[in-house]
Specification:
This protein folds into two domains: 192 residues, Rossmann fold, CATH 3.40.50; 175 residues, Glycogen Phosphorylase B (Rossmann fold). Helices cover 41% and strands 18% of the residues. The chain contains 15 helices and 13 strands.
Length: 391
């Protein structure tokens, strides 16, 4: 597509370790798909490898630069960061980028450390999560994190809760922060035949009430709580079925719990799904029991699919689910309250219908893909103007 006369597009690098399945990675792909090509030229700069979402990124027509760094057992090894910085600076300089948009910690920290070497005038750091994950940081991580904060021109939070957390715990000036809510494409209603086929693959029928949760099998996602709730409710709600979509380190623990609680006939560990959005329409209720949340993509996707939600009021979840409107909210780690709320939803078909419609309406108003892309583009323009970038 040709550029308007006398105007060139802003050159934007989405910097991330890889394009493995995740909310931040999907946000980059959504931006690459929908930003105006006359105004923005996007590239993916991947530190390690393309990952499962590589083909989706390639389909946007954006260039993909894979630097091919070793994963070093799944994370960038801190002792090699000096060498990494020395390599990354010239690699970014070669791209002649106006903006580096880094949505994850490793990428943001490296971009900050290499900014002088890369010559990139604008660094935008994304914050998807609450600050509590940094409790396990060692001294070097804290130093790198501090560098990223000081060097970023703006920190983009995925929710008001994340923004408040960033200001409170990371001591970033409020004027240096923005809230841009995650965006979702509202899906059409799932055809009955597709819904039946997905449920049949789980071994469930049309009369079952399927409760779904999409989350990595890792601590703080509340998956153990959901299994205990399923065991508690199975006699009260004989049609209850539970599907956990994800993968991770807790799989052996979850498998042991399923056996110990004797719920193997009503619980399915679906495993990893490249695009879980295709599954939400097969759920009757969405359950979200996290202990900490920033901008909960799975809850947003469930709402967009018109699913009524039972959730803990963790962080940004309260901005997705309004208690008594699109779902029911309970306190974090309150197993009895979660069980009671889920039982209410299971017992009331009219509530499920009403809450599902309200959840979809809220997703359309506050979390549309169009609004997400427009807000991000407006930020790019604001930052370019502030830096005097001539186009």
């Amino acid at each position: 597509m040709s550029e308007p006369l006398g105007r060139r597009p802003l050159r934007i690098a989405f910097l991330t370790p890889s394009l493995d399945v995740g909310g931040a990675e999907r946000k980059m792909i959504l931006l690459a798909e929908r930003l105006d090509r006359d105004r923005y030229q996007t590239e993916f700069v991947l530190l390690m490898h393309a990952g499962a979402l590589g083909p989706a990124a390639e389909a946007t027509g954006s260039r993909i630069r894979v630097l091919g760094w070793p994963s070093r057992h799944g994370r960038l090894h801190r002792l090699r960061w000096g060498w990494d910085v020395a390599r990354l600076g010239p690699q970014l300089r070669a791209g002649h980028y106006d903006i580096i948009h880094a949505l994850l910690f490793n990428a943001a920290a490296l971009a900050a450390l290499t900014q002088r070497l890369s010559g990139t005038p604008i660094l935008i750091a994304g914050r998807e999560r609450m600050d509590d994950y940094k409790e396990r940081f060692g001294p070097l991580d804290r130093f790198l994190d501090g560098q990223a904060r000081r060097s970023s021109d703006v920190v983009v939070a995925a929710s008001e809760a994340v923004r408040d957390d960033v200001i409170r715990h990371e001591h970033i000036e409020p004027a240096k922060t923005r809230v841009i809510r995650n965006g979702v494409v509202l899906p059409p209603p799932m055809p009955p035949s597709e819904r039946s086929a997905i449920r049949a693959a789980w071994g469930f029928g049309p009369d079952d009430l399927v409760v779904g949760c999409v989350a990595n099998y890792k601590p703080a996602k509340g998956l153990e709580l959901l299994l205990r709730v399923a065991a508690d409710l199975r006699s009260k709600a004989p049609h209850l079925r539970l599907v956990l979509v994800g993968e991770g380190e807790l799989r052996p623990t979850l498998e042991r719990m399923i056996a110990d609680l004797h719920v193997g006939d009503i619980v399915r560990l679906h495993g990893r799904e490249l695009d879980a959005r295709r599954l939400y329409g097969a759920f009757d209720i969405y359950a979200h029991a996290s202990e900490s949340e920033g901008g909960p993509n799975a809850a947003i996707e469930a709402a967009a699919a018109g699913r009524p939600i039972v959730a803990t009021g963790a962080g940004g979840t309260r901005e997705v689910v309004i208690d008594g409107e699109g779902g029911l909210l309970v306190a974090i780690n309150d197993e009895a309250a979660f069980s009671a709320a889920l039982m209410r939803m299971l017992s009331d078909g009219e509530m499920r219908k009403t809450f599902g419609a309200a959840a979809r309406d809220r997703a359309e108003r506050l979390f549309s893909a169009e609004q997400f892309v427009a807000d991000t583009a407006a930020l790019y323009e604001e930052m370019a103007e502030s830096k005097g970038i001539r186009r």
